[in-house]
Amino acid sequence: MALVISNLFGQNTPAIAATEGLYEEMWAADVAVMSAYHTGVSAAAAQLAPLQQALALPAAVDFSISIFGLQLVQGGTANANSTFGGLAVASGANSTANAGVTDIALAFGSGSTAEATGGVLNVAGSFGSNSSTSATGGVNLGTGALAFGNNNTVRANSIGTVNIGTVAAAFGNDNSVTAIANGVENNATVAAVFGNNNTDVSAVVNGVENTGIVSAVFGSNNSGVAANAFGVENNAVVATVAGSGNNTVLAQAGGAGLNEIVLASAFGNNNSVAATATGVGGNLGTVATAFVGDGNTVAASATGAHTLTAATALFGDNNVVKANSFGAENIGTVATAGGSGNSAVSADANGTGNIATVATAFGNNSPNVAASALGAGNIANVATALGNGNSATAKAIGVDNIATVATTAGSNNAVGASGVGVGGNIANVATAFGSDNSQVSADAGGAGGNIATVATSFGNGNKVTASAFGAGNIANVSTALFSNNNTLSASSFGVENIATVATSIGDNNGVSATNSLGVGGNIATVATAIGFGQGDNQVAAESGAGGGNIASVATVLFGGNNTVSASGLGAGNIADVATVLFSSHSTAHASALGVENIATVATSLGDGNNVSASAPGIGATSPPWPPLSARATPRLRPWPAPAAPTSPPWRPPWVTATASRTRRWARPISPASPPSSGTTTPQTSM
């Protein structure tokens, strides 16, 4: 402007022309810049048009977004995929999101599919109905598929070196849910359903070390609920159901190493629950449980050295409960049922050594409560029924068996404990508390010996037996205490038998103690009945041996109309005793047959009793008293027997008619036989 004002004489014209040329060049540059800016802004606006349209027309939006592969926001049946950095988000029905490398892929909406593949870190999530989610890569963290609604198919699949949090879950009905993890190390593989009528709810893991494999259902009428793990070591494999009518709730683990906590559980009615573990290293805690429900089938099975294999049904009726273990060492194989009408409650252990094989029923009318152990050594094989109408058995077969026990508390039960061992059996015990128990038995058979074979009844109308077969048997005992109308027997068969005892305290009881074929001998074969009222007890103690018998004793105390007998058959018999004390109208008989018999005694204290004692022997009989017919009056020393007449023919030594008086020795009425052919032992009557 200054050049123009001062150009009065035209002197500044060249300078003004040069300046105008510079301004023209500047404006031309500005126009070019503005034109390029306009072009860029137009392109950006074109990219943002779908988002603008979505904001303007939300009903038409499906939505899509992708980062690092750009493609930010894409409307219409959304499809977002990305590479390198990841994050592909898609929203809307039938959306697909695919992200690569360190990917996060999320899809929202019905029928959505989200995949995150080929990266180091994969997270794939799907929220909606008919969703499918898959994550694949070297390291997987948080692979999840989640569906809200009905008729959904939910899949979470991770394949990688380390998989953490592979989760498939559905909230609704008629869904299919699967979570699968395959890798060196898998943690928290979970399949869960909240709803009814769901199928194939499963968590599956294959890896070297697997932790937390869970399949869970909260609802009814679901099928195929399974948690399955295979690896060197598996920890916490769990399948659980809360509801009714659920079929095949399974927790399964197989591995070369150790399986810890394999659990299948059901809360409700009419469920089928199983826990199975197979491990070369061993199994710790294989448990199948049904709580608070009826009509459940519960099974726990472990193969391999194991600790605690348990099947339990509590607070319910009509359940089937089984626990089974097979391995080198089995500790704690347990089956338990609480309720009535449980058709089978069983615990079975097979292995080198079995400790604590236990079957227990709380309730009534359980026909099969059984604990069985097969192994080199079995300790504590126990079957227990608490209630009425139950059958409980405990069986042990092995080299050595310790504490085989069957117990019932109630009425109309059958209880048996049996042990068969090459070595021996210690504490084979059957016990009944109650009345009308058809069978309470303890049986022991061992090539070595049996110690403490015991059958006991507290109640009325029970049948109680204890039997032992072995090289040596000690304490074979059958007892009915404070009860009536019982049948009791204790029997032993072996080289040597010590303390075979049958005892009854009550009335109308049949009690027997039998020692058969003790090649060495039988010591203390004892049958005892103690009556409180009418009596009517039948008591017998019998011992037979190739060697000798010591103390075969049958005793009745109190009551009336009792029959008691004691007999011994062997090379030598010592103290063969039948006794009735404080009892009336009873019969007591003591007999001994052997080479030598010492102290064969029958005693009665009461009124109207029939008492006899006989001891035929080939050798000497002590005391060596001659027939009383050889003496005019009783003497302190024996007299020689008279010469034997030639007629009439002599009666056998054991055929003798006696007439007894109070506090007098009985005298034979007919001519006595020669001293060499037989003797008669003292008899007393009060």
Automatic annotation (TrEMBL):
InterPro entries: PPE_dom, PPE_sf. It comes from the Bacteria. Residues 637-652 have a biased composition (Pro residues). Residues 2-48 form the PPE domain. Pfam families: PPE. Residues 667-686 have a biased composition (Low complexity). Gene3D superfamilies: PPE superfamily. SUPFAM superfamilies: PE/PPE dimer-like. Residues 637-686 are annotated as: Disordered. This is PPE family protein. It comes from Mycobacterium kansasii.
